[in-house]
Amino acid sequence: MNAARFRHFMAIDWSGARGARQKGIAVALCSDAGEAPRLLQPEGHAHWSREDVLAMLLEHLPDDTLVGLDLGISLPFTDAGAFFPGWDDSPADARQLWALIDTICRDDPHLSATSFVDHHEASAYFRRHGGREGSLFHLPDAAHRRGRMRVTEEAQARVGCKPYSNFNLVGAAQVGKSSLTGMRLLHRLDGRVPVWPVDPLPPSGSVVVEIYTTLAAVAAGRSASRAKMIDRESLNAALQALGSPPVPGIGAIDDHSTDALVTAAWLRTAAHREDLWHPAELTDELARTEGWTFGAP
């Protein structure tokens, strides 16, 4: 498999926040020509909507693009042998999970996932706002007080990152809301853009992977605790460490934009590494259920 075949590299900092358009969504793109990554803007609007991103991935994606989505593409499965142990409708794999979430949330606007986390069965597995912790948020033999973890999140922790459970929907660092809304998007891709490793890496065409922007920042010389950047000097120093030209401009820049810009540049350097496509712990069973974060060892 020639993983070095990609010609474009896109990083999407995602958001699970309420509303039609999200300040927290940032999209950056660069090519194999080596230019600085650039931020993309939706036509006619200052901010992206989740539907805008879906339309771009389906209709306007450059050829042979490696797309990194900053969200969890699945939920923990391996620790309990199920996403939702004890629930008869618990899906058998990631694709069925995406379909279940999108079906239950079919009337939720803007690809939000409120109906799923409030569902009379599913809510038992989540920690929600207002002190509402479901009775099954912690399994009896849970390894983490922060909630259940995927195997790839354990791998992230071993290199100094601090991942949070996708069942946790509370706190500034939570990624659960982003992940659930992202799973609705993944379902609606309908296989037209493969999602690695749920789908095998195809010999040509574009591919979506899960990213964790902290991994890109660490590869650019930042520590995990200093992964966020809100000034152009830090941004351009990180880009230089990744072999990228600087991003022009002056003044402050938000951390969603810097996350996307640095990660797009990092994807360009990382895509050719065969070891990142074949992590030691990634089995066929794990690929179809929990998935993996590209770049996690």
Q: Can you tell me about this structure?
A:
This is DUF429 domain-containing protein. This protein has 297 residues and is α/β, with parallel strands linked by helices. It has 2 domains: 159 residues, 2-Layer Sandwich (Nucleotidyltransferase, domain 5), CATH 3.30.420; 93 residues, no CATH class. 30% of the residues lie in helices and 10% in strands. The protein is built from 10 helices and 7 strands. Helix 1 runs parallel beside helix 5 and helix 6 packs across helix 8. The model has no long low-confidence stretch (mean pLDDT 93).
Which helices and strands occur, and which strands form pairs?
Blueprint: E1 8-13, E2 26-31, E3 38-40, H1 50-59, E4 65-70, H2 94-104, H3 114-117, E5 127-128, E6 132-133, H4 151-158, H5 176-189, E7 207-210, H6 213-219, H7 232-241, H8 255-270, H9 274-277, H10 284-289
Parallel strand pairs: 1-4, 4-7
Antiparallel strand pairs: 1-2, 2-3, 5-6
Helix pairs in contact: 1-5, 2-5, 6-8, 7-8
**Spans of 5+ residues with little confidence (pLDDT < 50)?**
none
How many DSSP H or I helices?
Answer: 10
Shape: globular
Topology-level CATH name of the largest domain? Nucleotidyltransferase, domain 5
Organism: Novosphingobium malaysiense
Protein name: DUF429 domain-containing protein
Descriptors for this entry?
297 residues, alpha/beta, Nucleotidyltransferase, domain 5, 2 domains, 5-stranded mixed beta sheet, two-stranded antiparallel sheet, 10 helices, 7 strands, globular
